[in-house]
Amino acid sequence: MEKVILIKYGELSTKKNNINFFLKKLKENILFALQDFDVEVTYDLGRMFIHTLSPDKVIDRIKNVFGIHEINIGYIIETTELDIVKEEVLFLLNKKEFTTFKVESKRANKKLNTTSIELSKNLGAYILKNKDGLKVDVNNPEILINVEYRMNNTLVYFDEFKGLGGYPVGTLGKGLLMLSGGIDSPVAGYLTIKRGVKIEAIYFESPPHTSLEAKNKVISLARKLALYNNDLILHIVNFTEIQEAIYKNIPHEYLITIMRRMMYRISAIIASQRNAKLLVNGESIGQVASQTLTSMSAINEVVSIPVIRPLACFDKLDIIELAKKIDTYETSILPFEDCCTIFVPKHPVINPSKEKCHEYEKLIPYKDLIYEAIKTHEVKKITAKENNDEFKDLL
Ligand code: ATP
Ligand code: MG
In terms of Cα–Cα distance, which of 330, 178, 353, 145 is closest to 260? Predict the structure, then answer.
């Protein structure tokens, strides 16, 4: 009997024609998460297995891999012979403390000439006969004994841990996340990775108006996201000249609108260079002046690439709860200024007109500035593994 980690992949099993593509990617991502472990990953008949000598450490590591719906410790018995299965299950149960149980059987091997219900009854009766003080409880058992009769072997498992669900990262292409140091954008990134989209991120900095700490904070957030994304390419764009040109030449109520149009333009170009099929950001309807429907429409107008806003309909409190869950919140609330917060006008326009945007943008040589910003931008590969403790005294 071999002790293995059993992975169930829930929703993926509905991908009939593409299932192998999804499973191949899931296996690849699991191996990436476990690159410093000696493991083997196999799959067949709707189940994936990790063969390892240190299951507890492995489970801890793969908890963050999307596409895994349940993780179990499983036992593979090298036969479907009922008498042997009974003995082995009893052997496993002898190590556990419980008084009520239920047996649930599945037959991937339809050649077995009994039904699943009969198999469960038969094994249940054997357990009752050979172990004292037990009762069957079909509604609320202390132990659920899952037995799956497969082609040449039988799989037994008891405990179940919930995985994160979602799709394996990389199965749905690539997106570019606009990552600020705030609370929202890391959460938007997390939700997008969960749908199988591998992300790269883009951050606009305005030194010396924004500090090195602000940039390091974004790198820390990128590192947290890299944990789910395998690793993460971060594009750091120097936005100072563009921002100063806007500040000097454009009526202040339009500062944010025009600034965001420039961010969108640059993001769309870098997305296209990187073969990313969509932009992702942390906008949420109504949260600030630049996130009214009229504002979003005036800003969105400058790009044709789809823009996904996973938090569009989330309340701030729900976003905060998720940020805490994925461990980005404490970093996000560190008090370092963002390039938007420095140039915030007193009265930003709530319903900007597109005509005025066109008119004002003629006042600055934005094409040249954008060209220069893209040409000189910094590209950093962020891995989840390096432990970033730049802020350990603050956290
Ligand atoms: P967040 O909490 O994510 O910073 P916010 O509520 O502060 O969002 P805004 O500042 O209006 O809202 O930004 C909306 C979105 O625009 C952000 O969620 C992010 O996706 C993107 N964004 C804002 N500033 C930057 C920046 N400096 N670099 C990259 N993306 C940015
Ligand atoms: Mg922000």
Answer: 178
Residue having the nearest C-alpha atom to atom 24 of ligand 1: 180
Residues 296-311 as b/e (b if ≥16 CB within 10 A, e otherwise) read bebbbebbebebbbbb
Confidence tier at 386 by pLDDT (50, 70, 90): low
Ligand 1 centroid to residue 267 C-alpha, Å: 13
Res 394 pLDDT > 50: no
Our mutation pick for probing the ligand 1 site, out of 176, 183, 184, counting the most ligand atoms within 8 A of Cβ, is 184
Residue 45 has what pLDDT? 83
Widest CA span in the chain: 88
162 CB burial (10 A radius; 0-12, 13-18, 19+):
exposed
Q: Find out whether the beta carbon of 339 lies less than 6 Å from any atom of ligand 1.
A: yes
Place of tokens 């006008």: 345
Mean pLDDT, to the nearest integer, of 292-304? Answer: 95
pLDDT digits (tens, 9 = 90+) for 229-239: 999 999 999 99
Q: What is the pLDDT of residue 94?
A: 93
- Model pLDDT, residue 289: 75
Give distance in angstroms: CA of 197 to centre of ligand 1.
20
Q: For the chain, give the number of residues.
A: 395
180 CB less than 6 Å from ligand 1?
A: yes
2-6, 71-75, 141-145, 161-165: least confident range: 161-165
Strand (E) or helix (H) holding 249: helix 240-249
Closest CA to 216 of 228, 227, 205: 205
270 CB within 6 A, ligand 1? no
Q: What is the residue with the minimal CA distance to atom 25 of ligand 1?
A: 180
Atom of ligand 1 nearest to the CA of 341: 10
In order of their start, the domains of the chain are 2-162 (3.30.2130.30), 174-393 (3.40.50.620)
Nearest residue (CA) to ligand 1, atom 31? 180
Residue 158 exposure: Cα atoms within 13 Å on the Cβ side = 14
Question: Between 180 and 288, whose confidence is greater?
Answer: 180
